[in-house]
Amino acid sequence: MIADLIHKIAGMEEEAENGHEFSARPSLAGPERCIRQMVYWSLGFQKQPFPGRTILVFDDGNWHEELTNNWIRKSVYRLHSEQMQVDVRHPMTIGHIDGILTDMNGTDIFYEHKSINHFTFQKFWDTSDLPLDYLTQCAIYMDGLQKIQPEILRGLLLIKNKNTAQYMEYELAYNSRIDELCVRSKIRSTGEKKQMDVIFPNIVAEATEKFELVLEYAYKKRLPKRQYEIDDWHCSYCGWGHICWGEYEKEFTELKTDAMLPNEVADLVRYKQETSAHRLSMEKEEKELTNKIKDLMKEVDAREGKAGEYRCKLTLMKNQRIDKSLLSAEAVAKATVESMYEKLTISKLKKEVKNGSE
Predict the structure, then answer these.
(1) How far is it, in rounded angstroms, from Cα 181 to Cα 172?
(2) Which long-range contacts does 60-69 make (Cβ < 8 Å, 24+ apart)?
(3) What mean pLDDT do residues 204-223 have?
């Protein structure tokens, strides 16, 4: 009665809101946001609506922020100036900050909240990857804040894991005089801290230039090159992906087939071929070693046991596949999803034989 209704309502609202004019918002300013997407948007191309379930996932983020803020209000920090309007650099539109935190010493700290899935959360904690779009947005807001409160030099980007309710924060410092953002450290809710000291110079200026470029492309009714490959997840979630890649097969066939490629390509190909040969050799050796270990375990009728400082265990696994022969051609066609990707094939050129020589 309700379960199958909510997604439909969300989808209907998304369709109703489709067609909103493009505006250069700080949340769109980061380097990972596709500039080609924004040009399509600013030119008025119709966006393909997201499924209702996806809209609900996005909507969850707003409620996660409010839940987090309620817990912050119970702490020694005072949260205020929520959704306060700040002036941002032209041509960006006015932004609204998530808030300002005041600590026990009376120091004000810029505060921005985000919520993300578990996989992305772990990636940002375990690797040196940074949430570049979020950091750019923070720098833009801090740049605007410092025009009216120059003493707000520190910032906090707080990220919530939507799946586990864990938190991770990035300690920031921004100097609007030289337009430089420093990511000092990251800390997770377990108390573990990692020092970073990563500096982003000219971060707001570059975001401003990006929007100016979008407006220039739109004015000239031209499209920039695609920022991502056809099978990239960014394109899968893009409302203009069906337009961007819709004529790509025709576009692909028109690419040159007799091009003289840069010398750098030859060097890269040689290295790729060497690494591929090494990988295949190692995979073959790994498979042989695995089989030998399994054979020796079965010789002593074991599926688990100790070997020196190791424990070896055999697990019987099952996988599932769809037997198309049991389905009608119509059912197979209905369940088949087609996608495109670019496959690189490398072959060795034949040496030219000169006249009169073998």
Answers:
(1) 7
(2) 60/115, 60/162, 61/114, 61/115, 61/162, 64/113, 64/115, 64/160, 64/162, 65/98, 65/113, 65/115, 68/113, 68/158, 68/160, 68/167, 69/99, 69/113
(3) 97
Instruction: Match 């992305």 to its residue by tokens.
Output: 120
Q: Which whole-number Å values give the CA distances from 164 to 73, 124, 161, in the listed order?
A: 21, 15, 6
Q: Is the peptide bond before 91 cis (omega within 30 degrees of 0)?
A: yes
At residue 20, the pLDDT reads 76
Residue carrying structure tokens 């030859």: 266
* Residue 100 β-bridge partners: 80, 110
pTM of the model: 0.78
Distance CA(344)–CA(97), nearest Å, equals: 45
- Helix, strand, coil shares, percent, the chain, to 5: 40, 20, 40
Higher pLDDT, residue 10 or 145: 145
Other Cβ atoms less than 10 A from the Cβ of 124: the count is 18
Least confident of 112-116, 165-169, 314-318: 314-318
Region 296-314: mean pLDDT is 91
Contact at 8 Å (CB) between 168 and 188?
A: yes
Dihedral class, residue 221 (left if φ above 0, else alpha if ψ from -120 to 50, else beta): left
**Average pLDDT estimate for 342-350:** 80
Mean pLDDT of the residues in the chain: 90
Question: What is the per-residue pLDDT for 358?
Answer: 47
> Closest Cα partner for 160 from 256, 62, 89, 90?
62
SS3 assignment, position 307: strand
Which residues in 68-80 are b (16+ Cβ under 10 Å) and which e? Answer: bbeebeeeebebe
Cβ-in-10-Å burial (0-12, 13-18, 19+) of 269 comes to: middle
Confirm if 298 and 305 have CB atoms less than 8 A apart.
no
Nearest to 224 by CA among 213, 236, 235, 232: 213
Given pLDDT bands bounded at 50, 70 and 90, which one contains residue 7?
A: low
Mean pLDDT of 217-234: 94
Kindly state the greatest CA–CA separation across the chain. 91
